[in-house]
Amino acid sequence: MTSPARAPLLSRPAPARSVAELLLGYLKAEEVGAVFGLPGGPATPLFDALLREPALRTVVARHEAGAAFMALGAARATGRLGVCLLTTGPGATNAVTAVAAAKSDGLPLLVLTAQVAAASFGKGSLQDSSDVGVDTVSIFRPVTKLSALLASPANAGSLMRQALRTAMTGRRGPVHLSVPADLMRRAAPDAASSPCEYRPRSRVFDRAAVETAARLLTAARRPAILAGHGTLLAGAEPELQELAELVGAPVATTPKGKGAFPETHPLALRVFGLASSPRAARVLLSPETDLLLVVGSSLHENSCEGWDPRLAAGRTLIQQDIEPAVIGRNYPVSAAMVGDAKTTLSELLLVLRRRRRGRPARPAPPDADAPPWLPLPAPSDGPLKPQRLMRALDAALPERARVILDVGSHALWATHYLTANGRNSFAHNWGEFAAMGYGVASCVGAAIAAPGRPVVAIVGDGGFAMLGMEVSTAVTHRVPVVWVVLNDGRLNAVHHGQRLQYEGRTAGTEFRRIDAAGVAAALGAWSLRVEREAEVGPALAAALASGRAAVLDVRIDPDEAPPLESRVRALERHFGGENP
Ligand SMILES: Cc1ncc(C[n+]2csc(CCOP(=O)(O)OP(=O)(O)O)c2C)c(N)n1
Ligand SMILES: [Mg+2]
């Protein structure tokens, strides 16, 4: 936008193509639709160049963590690169948590941060973030796959190509480039090239490993499948379903894999791991299950019920993952399939179909007669029980909704009681990193980058207090996200965890209830307070129908303990110094 204020202090003739324009050219080549960011002095040449790129929507967030979470929400929803553009110094450091979340989730994210002018490194420039200032390249190194300083316009193209290749290949992840302000407007020697010229698109699998896995699966009497987040990232849901039906194997998903298999399918066991379904736990931990095929899960604490030894005891374990370093990390494997989940499963299907030709059908899978979820509290006129809230939301959520969760009790209730329909309908970060704030902000990025599906974020009041100001970003950009805030005046997952661990004592978990509807209204959103079960469905329908950013401030009973026993048991072992 322009304002009539003062005449510019300086104006220089622009080069034919500046470094800033070259970098944006690569974003267009990667089909990035939106750049999420927050400006500052040294970053302004990039923001100025964005004005001339109508294909790149600029979305300015209220906090850099919000911008980075939005960029990774966009990456998660589209399968393409997410991009955030931030200023130097505190602009860069504010984003570190979200970048770490992208690394733990294997999501491709390009973080462009401005840097003070290279000519002034070490002279005490405001927010110097070179290696003689607050060294942002080093700060991002452990939370990215690559973090580098652009040292010369001459290698702007090759450094950008290396960053994109690194982010988008193998196990995907975040990369960071620090761009000195004095290089941004300099002439760039080359134009952006196309992705097929600088990064491989091949999806890898290992034929010998697939043959071994097929032999083991054919020999198994009662196989079961545990599908993780990698299944969703590879888009392997159709192959997973075909495989389950071909071998007659029931399927559980990890908490982060929720949505990889329709939970309405007769073979569905729902979620195993944190907030396990009793049905999934019954089948996956049963000695009757003689083979477990793990697809796209690193089997970290939350996806294996705190390293439950029964998951692998006395049975064949086949683990598939794109990252070799996580295979066999926590359980000994009988066969390892390194590669892309989609290609690996389709190759496995080919081999199995060949082998099974003319063979009798496998006996029926073990009857998973355990209940799908823990008992629901009876209806009452008292405070709204979170379990009943979730079942009411489940009935009211549109078929095509994307449900995005934050971290806390609300996410456990949602994982346990909502039903995923297999349309990649869930996203959250409660895996190995579990950053509060993810669900509160990433939903805005998902809604902007992949419009056309209703987006409903289920968050806690603690997380909402951290990054709820991003409601303002959604209002500004007219993005119709609905936040369902479980308002309990507590950091309740920690509260109930402490109660279980410390004979009922809790510390540091309570705060005065926030008027979340009031905050949302003050930010310009549609909002409503909800206190009764009967209000839930109509409130969600009205929020969605408003077509606006909307916040439901749901007052729940804080005293219901969420299903986090496996986490508490794991914590006890951590404190005891055990190697789990
Ligand atoms: C950034 C961050 N800080 C702290 C934690 C530890 N933690 C995990 S769950 C939780 C409580 C979350 O509270 P709230 O958002 O209100 O959700 P609730 O559990 O009450 O549903 C906390 C503090 C975390 N995961 N991430
Ligand atoms: Mg809370």
Report on the structure:
The protein is α/β, with parallel strands linked by helices. The chain has 23 helices and 18 strands. Strands 2-1-3-4-6-5 form a six-stranded parallel beta sheet, with helices on both faces. Helix 1 (19-29) runs parallel beside helix 7 (156-168) and helix 15 (386-396) crosses helix 16 (409-417). The model has no long low-confidence stretch (mean pLDDT 94). It binds thiamine diphosphate and magnesium ion. Thiamine diphosphate (TPP) binds next to helix 16, helix 18 and helix 20.
Topology:
Blueprint: H1 19-29, E1 34-38, H2 44-50, E2 57-60, H3 64-78, E3 82-86, H4 90-93, H5 96-105, E4 109-115, H6 136-140, E5 146-149, H7 156-168, E6 174-180, H8 181-184, H9 195-198, H10 207-219, E7 223-227, H11 229-234, H12 237-247, E8 251-253, E9 268-271, H13 278-284, E10 291-295, E11 316-321, E12 335-338, H14 341-356, H15 386-396, E13 402-405, H16 409-417, E14 426-427, H17 438-449, E15 455-460, H18 461-467, H19 471-476, E16 481-487, H20 492-501, H21 516-522, E17 526-530, H22 533-545, E18 550-555, H23 565-575
Parallel strand pairs: 1-2, 1-3, 3-4, 4-6, 5-6, 7-8, 7-10, 8-9, 10-11, 11-12, 13-14, 13-15, 15-16, 16-18, 17-18
Bound molecules: thiamine diphosphate and magnesium ion.
